[in-house]
Amino acid sequence: MIRSTRMYRFIYRILSISLLLSLCSSSLGAPASWAAMMMSPVNPKVTREARELLNTLYHVSGENIIAGQHDYLESPDDQNNKLNKISGQYAGLHGYELGAISGQTEDQIARQRSSVVDSAIRWYKAGGMVSITFHESLPGTAKAWSNVQKSISQSEFDKYVTPGTAEYGKLIQDLDSVAASLKKLSDAGVPVLWRPYHEMNGDWFWWGQKNHFNKLWNVMYDRFVNVHGLNNLLWVWSPNAPNGYAEPYSLYFPGLAKVDVLAIDIYNSDFRQSYYDGLLSLAQGKPIAIGESGELPDLEALEITQNKWAYMMTWGKMLTENNSASRISTFMNSGYVLSRDKLVLVQQNVSSFAKAAVPLENGLYGEYFSNAKLSGVPIMRKDDSIQFNWRNGSPELSIPKDFFSVRWTGKIQPLYSEKYTISTLSDDGIRVWIDGNLIIDSWFRQSWVERKGKIDLSAGQLYDIKVEYYEARGDSMVKLMWESPSQSKEIVPPGALFQPFSHVRTQK
Predict the structure, then answer these.
(1) CATH for 2-356, options being 3.20.20.80, 1.10.10.10, 3.20.20.150, 3.65.10.10
(2) Which residue from 256, 277, 453, 336 is spatially nearest to 67, judged by alpha carbons?
(3) Among 260, 272, 334, 462, fewest CB within 10 Å belongs to which?
(4) CATH class of residue range 360-500
């Protein structure tokens, strides 16, 4: 009876989304609740497919859980096919591996990674989600499980994250090698839930329980995003459950600015509520997931007390070693669990809903005027953030060095539900509106003066923002910053600023 009720609930939900979509498409915009769910990826340049994947995770959270199944580098489809044979369903999410741990030669690794890439492309085209784990051997050592688990000291670890050392060079060589496979997926338009350096709060991997773990994370992030242009990746941080073998999450968290999804690895059916609550709190509204587990979680707990898990992933052969065939079948055919077939329906509606809504991209819409009065026909362009120091120069070739003005408009999205302090540093005049409220009004000549205003904001909500600035004579500069009890003072980053997609393109 419970199973039938869940199935009816899923069908009802799909029908409800379709009805809401039809209503939305006949109106001028999308509901505010949908806009609030379209949270920003940490990489503002992510592909459309990756952004849609993240939107789906936000959409599923609190309503369903996506079933996932991991497979090994040497056999990228075996366990997922076994899952289908047992239950009649494929997992919605297919987990892959790019780390070689069995002493393979470089040629063998290349062939095996190629097979993973081919499988992942087929899987994505069939409507499934792709997650990839990377068990990296200590750079410069043989590709073997013993070297993934190699014990190194803190001082030895530090050499791998210090540019200019031989160890750092070996790390970069490793990263470049695996990036080649990820690039093939990027070229094929496949978004990836990228899950590196997992279980870092335990001591069983060479990267585990190290001070400055975030340096290792940031080296990979910078190399993949800024050097290789891997904009198809969503970054998944996946510690171990903080049990007797692992330390608290927060000691190894790279920060919300470098993580799209927070997941935890759970074994021995240890799905205790405190693990869930702790991760949910740390996520501050970002999706959470079960990165890997040996046992399938309890359906009642998932639906009642832990309903924010967006997906889960059973680890390899533990699917059948730790779970009975009847338990697997019951789980995969539950109305609360999204197999690939059901996930396809959800993704189709999410994608259509996003198209009916006003799609957003990071940054603000800038209007540059050739006078200090914000009048006339402006030069239009997109600005990622407001942090300019033109000194005695001009922001645009056709704009004078003195007596010009700028109006920036768009949306701003906070990470926390707190009172925010908005501050500006300008030379000369500045005004700031948020949600229609004028919170900074300093419209007169001034030299490098900081102004502040306060406003209560809710996490994840999109607020209208308008900033107006004018320059008189001499130096010209303007910065927009924010801070809150949980948010250190910083320039408001591109990931927190939005404008309608393709609303403006820079005029040259």
Answers:
(1) 3.20.20.80
(2) 336
(3) 272
(4) alpha beta
Calculate the alpha carbon distances from 250 to 158, 281, 392 in Å.
Answer: 20, 11, 45
Q: Report the alpha-carbon distance of residue 241 to residue 247 in Å, rounded.
A: 8
For the chain, the average pLDDT equals 88
| pTM of the full structure | 0.68
* Higher-confidence position of 207 and 20: 207
Helix axes 340-356, 48-60, angle to 10 degrees: 110
Long-range pairs for 449-454 at CB < 8 Å and ≥24 separation? 449/425, 450/423, 450/424, 450/425, 451/423, 451/424, 451/426, 452/421, 452/422, 452/423, 452/424, 453/421, 453/422, 453/423, 454/419, 454/420, 454/421, 454/422
**Is the model's pLDDT at 132 over the cut of 90?**
yes
Express each pLDDT in 189-199 by its tens digit: 999 999 999 99
Q: Between the CA of residue 481 and those of 159, 409, 426, 430, what are the distances in Å?
A: 35, 15, 11, 13
DSSP secondary structure of 261-304 = EEEEEE-TT---HHHHHHHHHHHTTS-EEEEEESSPPPHHHHHH
- Alpha-carbon span 240 to 266, nearest angstrom: 7
Measured between alpha carbons, how far is 168 from 218 in angstroms, rounded to an integer? 13
CB 81 within 8 A of CB 122: no
Rounded CA-CA distance 486/291 in Å is: 26
Share of the chain above pLDDT 90, in %: 73
pLDDT recorded at residue 296: 97
The full set of domain ranges for the chain reads 2-356, 360-500
- Cβ contact 334:66 at 8 Å: no
CB-based contact 493:258 (threshold 8 Å): no
| Alpha-carbon torsion (132, 137, 141, 142), positive or negative | negative
Q: Is the pLDDT of residue 383 over 70?
A: yes
Q: Helix or strand or coil: residue 68?
A: strand
* DSSP 3-state of 85: helix
CA distance 460 to 38: 9
